[in-house]
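Posting this for the archive.
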Amino acid sequence: MSRILYLDCFSGASGDMIVGGLIDAGVSFAQIEAVVNSLGLDGVRVSYDRVDRSGIGAAKFQVIDSANTGSSHGDHSHDHSHDHSHDHSHDHSHGHSHGHRGLSDITEIVKRSNLSSASQLKAVSLFRRLAEVEAEIHQMPVEEVHLHEVGAVDSIVDIVGAVCAFELLGVDQVISSPLNVGSGTVVCAHGELPVPAPATAKLLVNTPIYSAGPAVELVTPTGALLVTEYADDYGTLPPMRINGIGYGAGDRDFKGRPNVVRAFVGETTGKSEIERVVVLECQIDDMNPEIYGLLMEHLIEAGALDVFYTPIQMKKNRPATLITVIAQPVDRELLTTLLFTESTTIGVRVSEIARDTLDREIVSIDSPFGAVRVKVARRNGEILNVAPEFDDCVRVAEEHERSVKDIQAVVMKSWLDSGFSS
């Protein structure tokens, strides 16, 4: 059996809600507090309180910055003209004396913390991902990005606290529900923008979302960053034996709608779970071969679980290609439309079948060439397959002018020596 976390984001997600939910599910607040204190942010502390959200008791994780009188993360709505529900610190009128930090500043803060080395790498990669999103949106180099949201004290603490909480929780798999992003507009440093805000929307690419409830921002950039980074899959509550449930509170208490993230922690049932997938097939004998590569890329980007081509012989002895797409049932319509619009097929066969898979996890290990990701596959908790991520091995091989097979061998030895395999 393996440990599993299910994040129920029916009221959106923010950094403080996720941390609060994991604390309520059993993670030690004292250990998170110690990590926050090790960041060396003068006048900054965290608190943990029990609050009521529409009749449900929940954990409220809060960042308090004594350097700014009356400034505490979790109650920013008084500074906005709109009804702001979560922790998205776009535009604080009071202003932090700490100022907004750039990526290099945040990296130094993380490196001086007492986070484990693996969690430090994870935290830095999260900040870098957000900086890259901001750089793309504002059309500027990553090094020049001034992180208005992430550079704020509360966002730094939320991300570092969440990374610490996920490590302490020690689950093998994270699954999230589709995210309720809310609606309306949000006021930020760049003006009034539609919900989800541009950074949030970019982070949620290829993630299932919807809008329901009050016309406010329900998913913040920090929340989107954390969920999309840690979630291995999205969907309904999976088969599991529940050991604990945690509720992480947002700022607002919506009438009749609990403003919380719900965290289910438990174990798989010890039995292989069968899932349903759809198989889309079409045969093509009249398409420019150059299109096949682009078609495969677009199908994968649109959510296909797998795409492969098989050479076949059709009627009148014509050589042709059988296109096979495996996907989640919910993605059938989108992928079928792509096949019709981007290939020359005039018909697609659809069948629904059962699929049995191994539990998969990506872990980062230290090798003589630095951190490299490794894919670990288990069945009922037993490790059956381990494979270094090929893209990482190619990158390392090019950096060190070594062959890819040599790098793969070194990484596998590092895996065996790391203790993960025991």
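The longest strand covers residues 274-284. Residues 74-98 have pLDDT under 50 and may be disordered.
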